[in-house]
UniProtKB/TrEMBL annotation:
Keywords: Transcription, Transcription regulation. Residues 199-297 form the HTH araC/xylS-type domain. InterPro entries: Homeodomain-like_sf, HTH_AraC, Tscrpt_reg_HTH_AraC_N. Gene3D superfamilies: Homeodomain-like. It holds the Pfam family AraC_N. Transmembrane segments: none annotated. PROSITE patterns: HTH_ARAC_FAMILY_2. This is AraC family transcriptional regulator N-terminal domain-containing protein. PANTHER family: ARAC-FAMILY TRANSCRIPTIONAL REGULATOR, TRANSCRIPTIONAL REGULATORY PROTEIN. It comes from Paenibacillus thailandensis.
Length: 307
């Protein structure tokens, strides 16, 4: 499976990156590294969909293929293209190409808003003020893969990581901002933009996900009108604020069920649901199974994959 024909230079870089990832991630699962912003993911099999809240980041695939869904939109990426997320988004990821002979090998590099703004201020990615999606797929380039490979190689020189890793991560972000995502990513960091207002609204919803949401009060907090908040929130996330909150609530309830051994009613209550029946109904609609059977299935099959 490939999104397009991969030029020889990129193919060679991806082969080198795959070897490096395989060396640092010898077993299936998600692997943190001495570079805090860098994580690896390896899988020897295709996987069930995994729900998680993404951070501002890029996800690069060296071998195999993966999809991420947000609302009604589905994004496919493999060695020819990488995924960019500019804000925290409740995405559904699935590895769709992997085998024991050719495992899925990928990495994620996370950024923060200050990093984005500092780098964007020194690039030509000024933007036109238009709100765009908070997630997109962009073609992989040799200029992007070069610093990524250097960042991974830095793991073999831990004494150099404190000084060089931040510089290389900033270089990677610079390369991302030079591409199509550049102007869109900057909008989220620019105070007063609609996208920045949406980013603030996302922060409020995620922080207080278990509390009732008032669109009027939320809009006032982020200095937008209710209609502007709804319109631009939808552009960024493919979801309404209420749909976004529901996904966050259900994902958190699922996490509680898995990690704290709560019963369904208690997990739903801590997630902001007053009715156990409503919680179970919406949980099954999102995850495909009622809470208890879903958690049993997850414990039987999941192998620590979170990326």
């Amino acid at each position: 499976m490939s999104l397009r024909i991969i030029p020889p230079e990129i193919a060679s870089q991806q082969e080198e990156l795959a070897r490096l990832i395989q060396r640092h991630a010898a077993a299936d699962g998600t692997h943190g590294t001495a570079v805090g912003a860098l994580h690896f993911l390896r899988s020897s099999r295709v996987m069930e969909p995994i729900h998680r809240v993404s951070k501002p980041s890029i996800c690069v695939v060296a071998q195999g293929a993966k999809t991420s869904a947000l609302g009604e939109e589905r994004y496919v990426y493999d060695p020819s293209a990488y995924l960019v997320t500019s804000v925290q988004l409740p995405i559904i990821g699935r590895i769709v190409e992997a085998s024991p002979e050719a495992p899925f090998l990928g990495l994620e590099i996370t950024f923060n808003t200050d990093d984005i703004l500092k780098v964007a201020q020194k690039t030509d990615s000024i933007g036109d003020g238009e709100t765009g999606p908070g997630i997109m797929v962009n073609p992989t380039t040799p200029e992007l893969l070069d610093p990524i490979i250097r960042l991974v190689k830095l793991l073999d020189k831990p004494e150099d990581i404190p000084f060089l890793a931040p510089l290389i991560v900033r270089e990677i972000l610079y390369r991302v901002l030079q591409g199509e995502p550049g102007a869109l990513m900057k909008q989220f960091a620019v105070s007063g933009s609609y996208a920045n207002g949406v980013a603030k609204a996302i922060h409020h919803i995620k922080r207080d996900y278990d509390k009732p949401i008032s669109i009027e009060e939320l809009a006032k907090e982020v200095n937008l009108s209710p209609s502007a908040l709804h319109k631009h929130f939808k552009k960024v996330t493919n979801l309404s604020p209420l749909q976004y909150q529901k996904m966050i609530r259900l994902q958190e309830a699922r996490r509680l069920l898995l990690t704290e051994a709560l019963n369904a009613a208690d997990a739903g209550f801590r997630g902001g649901y007053e009715s156990p029946t409503q919680f179970s109904r919406e949980y099954a609609r999102m995850f495909g199974r009622p809470p208890i059977s879903d958690v049993k299935q997850m414990r039987d099959s999941i192998n620590g994959f979170e990326m």
